[in-house]
From TrEMBL:
Residues of the Enoyl reductase (ER) domain: 25-326
Record protein name field: NADP-dependent oxidoreductase
Recorded coiled-coil stretches: none
Superkingdom of this protein's organism: Bacteria
Pfam families: ADH_N, ADH_zinc_N_2
Keyword flag Lipid metabolism: no
SMART domains: PKS_ER
Gene Ontology MF term list: oxidoreductase activity
Length: 329
């Protein structure tokens, strides 16, 4: 037990600052409150949160679209990074003071990372790669693991493939570009806005176009010309996604993560499927190995204080680049 290392700036020795929803609903805003510091189970780490990611899934959770509702007041935040304060007795390889990043299951009754302290299951927590700052590590696991699974497990990219990334300047998209470059896969980045195109170019996209402009899909035929295989990862849906799908050459493979509002695909000459992400320990261990070796550098475009979580959620719903983080420290 290392409660002495918790700072007196907390609301009390056993309570912490957190941002919590009182009830589900699209109009709801998380409110600051003092909640008990959670107690780690034998296989858990109590982590003093430095930073936490804010993503689209937080909006879905806020809006109460999932079949199972969390317990209220509810602290969200599925990913974060910080320092171990206490390691459960059955954990191995973690010590007080270690810098870690990790995942918390959505709707966990013990709360997520939008708080001063959070519990990580030891199997879903990893040492922060030395080349990354804590706020970068905080936004890595959800979208980074999704991008890695999309490219390596679902699309099974190979050197010299031609990969179209739709939503390339967003969370998943900007990780996908970096992983593709690392695998010597050519990319056409369909990014959002001029700033999105500039980010995609900086991250190594071979060609980058603005998918908010009419006619962006004309670039696809030129890009795919001569490629043995054309693959497409769609991280956003809607009418622009439909135009993209219509422009892909016959034989293309298309994948999108669950959560994307995909239009109906009326083509029988492409292979198309949505996929669910696995955040199980085995899959995540493989992801962490990738994160340690490089090549992923999370682009954190905005950092807001934890108390400004409502504004962070608005920023996720609006135009943004890469990822958005809240800082609890
Ligand atoms: N466990 C899971 O299953 C899981 C985990 C993570 C993510 N997801 C899903 O994966 C999807 C992507 O997540 P994310 O975190 O990457 O979201 P995100 O950061 O919002 O990325 C989506 C991107 O698509 C862009 N976009 C939309 N329309 C476009 C267009 N016409 N042209 C170019 N870009 C366009 C958006 O631009 P703006 O910034 O301008 O809006 C945004 O950058 C979401 O649906 C999410 O729910 C699922």
């Amino acid at each position: 037990m290392h409660l002495a290392t918790r700072t007196p700036a907390e609301a009390g020795p056993e309570t912490m600052r957190a941002m919590a929803f009182a009830r589900p609903g699209a109009g709801e805003r998380p409110m600051p409150c003092a909640l008990p510091i959670p107690t780690p189970g034998p296989n858990q780490l109590l982590v003093r949160v430095h930073a936490a990611g804010v993503g689209r899934w937080d909006l879905l959770e806020r809006d109460g679209v999932f079949a199972r509702l969390p317990r209220f007041p509810h602290v969200g935040g599925s990913e974060g990074a910080g320092v171990v304060v206490e390691a459960g007795r059955e954990t191995r390889g973690f010590r007080e003071g270690d810098r870690v990043y990790g995942l918390v299951a959505q709707r966990d009754p013990k709360g997520g990372c939008h708080a001063r302290f959070a519990l990580f299951d030891a199997g879903l927590a990893w040492p922060v790669p030395p080349r990354l700052a804590l706020d970068q590590a905080a936004v890595l696991p959800v979208d980074g693991a999704l991008a890695a699974q999309a490219l390596h497990a679902v699309l099974q990219v190979r050197e010299d493939d031609a990969l179209v990334v739709f939503g390339a300047s967003g969370g998943v998209g900007h990780f996908a570009l970096q992983l593709a470059r690392n695998a010597a896969v050519r990319t056409l980045a369909i990014a959002s806005g001029g700033d999105g195109v500039r980010l995609a170019e900086r991250l190594g996209a071979d060609v980058a176009v603005d998918g908010r402009r009419p006619g962006f899909e004309r670039e696809i035929a030129r890009f795919a010309d001569g490629a043995k295989r054309t693959l497409a990862l769609l991280t956003a849906g809607g009418e622009a996604a439909a135009r993209l799908v219509a422009a892909l050459p016959a034989g293309s493979r298309i994948a999108w993560p669950h959560g994307v509002a995909m239009p109906t695909i009326a083509r029988d000459d492409v292979v198309a499927a949505g996929f669910g992400v696995r955040y199980e320990p085995d899959a995540m261990r493989a992801f962490h190995a990738l994160a340690e070796r490089g090549p992923l550098v999370p682009h954190v475009s905005r950092r807001l204080a934890l108390e400004r979580l409502p504004q962070a959620l608005e920023a996720v719903a609006a135009h943004h680049l890469g990822r958005i983080a809240v800082l609890a420290a």
